Amino acid sequence: MYGTIDGFTYGAATPLAAYLMACLGGALGLRCTARSVRTQRSWKAGWLALGSASIGTGIWTMHFIAMMGFHVKETPIGFDIPITVLSLVVAIVVVGIGVFMVGYRGTSRGVLLSAGVFTGLGVAGMHYIGMSAMRMQGHLEYSVPTVLLSVLIAVVAATAALWAAVTIQGFRASLASSMVMGVAVTGMHYTGMAAVRVRLDDVLSATVDGEAPASLILPMLIGPVIFLVIAGTIIMFDPLLVLGEGEWNEKKADRAHRTPPPPPRPVWPVWPPEEEPAQVRASRPAPRHGRQEYRDG
């Protein structure tokens, strides 16, 4: 017997909130990755670590916000906390491998493809480990073709996002790439959820309808959301991360260009008193405060 699944218990609220968190994590992580490519080696590891943690935390938060709307009518749902935390660690570590590859090995096609595979597998691994943390009176079954499609979406999205982060400069361009990554990551999640069926146990110990796990998930989200806020604050105080190196240099040059230079002082030719034309003598400014007339400019 299969359970009755509703993946949108709260309507569009959970998909929209999940998408926004995926965009936030992607934007922070991609900007940090781009910053590491243009920074000194002594700071590179710090920016890459912050970027890895931001992407991993963002997609983990996206996953569990989306799972708040997952409901099985015939059984309540719980979560195994250690496995849930493991899914976050896997996301950060595996995504970090791909991010560090770009930061230290360059942005050639081979490196970007390899880094995209690792980053995409980190996204997919987080999703399916997080799904294995679910506890209910039954077990999950998956459609293998749909699972493979979800993994492919994650890898392609991660590769494209990394390419955009290190190739396209500027805040607006990176914002657009993070929005695309948010669509892809959220789409990967719901593609994976479309592969799920819940086979119920033969004997159910509970006769009441199952409850959506929002009350269980919300406390787990507090720490990751605080981290993303802190990461965003760090980025806000770095103009190179907000504007990008090109726009930052252009902005400084524009400010310098808009500052008008001081007007040149008039230069009057020097004439001997007996040879100075009357018209030139009349055009000279009158001396002020008893000072002598300025003659040599």
How is this structure best described in words?
- The structure is a single chain.
- The protein is mainly alpha-helical.
- It has ten helices and six strands.
- It has one domain.
- The termini are far apart.
Low-confidence regions: 206-211, 243-250, 293-297
Please give the share of residues in helix: 55-70%
Name the strands of the widest sheet in spatial order: 1-2
Order of helices and strands: EHHEEHHEEHHEHHHH
How many distinct beta strands? 6
The tally of domains stands at 1
For the termini, the CA-CA separation is 100 Å
Count, helices:
10
Query: What amount of the residues lies in strands?
Result: 5-15%
The biggest sheet amounts to:
2 strands, antiparallel
Task: Give the averaged pLDDT, no decimals.
Answer: 78
Taking Cα atoms only, what radius of gyration do you get, to the nearest Å? 31 Å
Structural class: mainly alpha
What overall form do the CA principal axes indicate?
Answer: elongated
Blueprint (SSEs and pairs):
Blueprint: E1 5-6, H1 13-37, H2 41-67, E2 71-72, E3 78-79, H3 81-105, H4 109-132, E4 134-135, E5 138-142, H5 144-167, H6 171-194, E6 196-200, H7 214-236, H8 239-243, H9 245-258, H10 278-283
Antiparallel strand pairs: 1-2, 3-4, 5-6
Helix pairs in contact: 1-2, 1-3, 1-5, 1-6, 1-7, 2-3, 2-4, 2-7, 3-4, 4-5, 4-6, 5-6
